[in-house]
TrEMBL record:
SUPFAM superfamilies: RNI-like (SSF52047). This is Uncharacterized protein.
Length: 377
């Protein structure tokens, strides 16, 4: 026997007259809810504020509320929000560092799974930690489907136990890659040709410590679409001068395997003086205090940002993949401050920029205003 809905016409008229109103079910306002609010959790006020926000910004929300008959004991819920707003809420709730919670969200409904699934696999890690784990759970994931979602891939052959052919196949299956971190710590070649087929690739980070075919990368179109290029653990003899042919590169970062000498910085200075398209030149330095020839190199061009080695790690790459503040963000601010003359003196040239760089000690009053308005906020 069907149970009729209560007459909600009066309540609906009252509800629709003012977007500041949020009518909530009585089971949302109890003692437990009060304590949730006291602990800083999500309480009835949080839900009400979101309803009011949605109503103010989506005037057609009431058009999506349907009064339907429902069968007794039915648990079917009719969505109250426009699909685009509902999707935005789930995307905001998505946490890339909480896979279990994301899996729970995908179980809400088919439409939510369609929205969340690309976010779950947007960043793929195949290193000491493998996500997804193609080796242990080969039957649990559809590789072809998942790889279409991947925009950021971090891989190390030594730890993921992949052969070079397996790495090439994985890269080919990810046509939508925007950034690639290839940090193989075992001796071998880098698949430059496969990288050159990624036409949407914009950021490339490679470890050259034990690479046996460095020169092949400069002979291929691997860097043609790249805007942000990072060389880790570079060795002497790399033909850096040939990079100036790749005019799309606007950000370049380089670090050395060992302490560097005057000749190394002369090489970098010659490279930079010929590289007109470059906007940010990052040098990763191991020493806490810069030597005189390093400071001389630093002072010659405002596009340079010398950073401490502690800012250039794997965690930083993942911060960038998640859209958070990374090495590039900090370097861009350093370059901007230098170009605009925000530093009160040249004392900042004495040490590389680290995570604890004391901006307020070095900036002018105008620089402090910029720092507080742009950087801190």
């Amino acid at each position: 026997m069907k149970k009729p809905l209560p007459d909600l016409r009066c309540a609906r008229d009252f509800y629709s007259n003012d977007p500041r109103i949020a009518i909530m079910d009585v089971d949302m306002s109890d003692i437990d809810d009060w304590f949730r609010g006291a602990h800083g959790g999500i309480d009835v006020w949080w839900h009400a504020e979101n309803v009011v926000f949605a109503r103010k910004h989506y005037s057609d929300i009431m058009d999506h509320i349907e009064l339907r008959e429902y069968e007794e004991n039915s648990t079917h819920m009719v969505p109250f929000l426009p699909p685009e707003l509902e999707r935005k809420i789930f995307e905001m709730a998505f946490d890339p560092e909480d896979p279990s919670e994301n899996v729970q969200m995908m179980l809400v409904s088919k439409r939510v799974r369609i929205w969340i699934r690309p976010l779950v696999y947007r960043i793929m890690e195949q290193r000491t930690r493998r996500f997804p784990d193609f080796v242990r759970r080969p039957m649990c994931v559809d590789v072809e489907e998942i790889c279409q979602f991947v925009q950021h891939l971090a891989i190390d052959r030594r730890y993921c136990l992949y052969t070079l052919d397996m790495v090439k196949l994985l890269i080919k299956r990810c046509p939508n890659l925007i950034s690639l971190g290839y940090w193989s710590s075992e001796e071998g070649s880098i698949p430059w040709y496969c990288i050159s087929t990624l036409h949407q690739l914009r950021r490339l980070s490679v470890n050259l410590a034990r690479c046996t075919n460095v020169g092949a990368g400069f002979d291929s179109p691997a860097f043609s679409s790249i805007t942000h290029l990072e060389f880790l653990s570079t060795k002497p003899g790399i033909p850096l001068g040939r990079l100036i042919a790749f005019t799309n590169i606007t950000h370049f970062s380089i670090s050395s395997m060992t302490n560097t000498d005057n000749a190394w910085f002369r090489t970098l200075g010659n490279l930079l003086s010929s590289w007109d398209s470059l906007r940010v030149f990052v040098v990763v330095e191991l020493n806490e205090r810069l030597k005189d020839y390093v400071k001389y190199f630093y002072a010659q061009d405002t596009r340079i940002a010398i950073v401490d080695d502690d800012m250039n790690d794997v965690s930083d790459w993942f911060r960038g993949a998640r859209g958070e503040r990374d090495l590039w963000w900090h370097a861009e601010n350093m370059v901007l401050a230098r170009k605009r003359g925000y530093f009160a003196s040249d004392t900042y040239l004495e040490r590389p920029m680290g995570a604890d760089f004391p901006w307020v000690e070095y900036l002018t009053q105008e620089g402090l205003a910029w720092y507080r308005a742009q950087v801190v906020n």
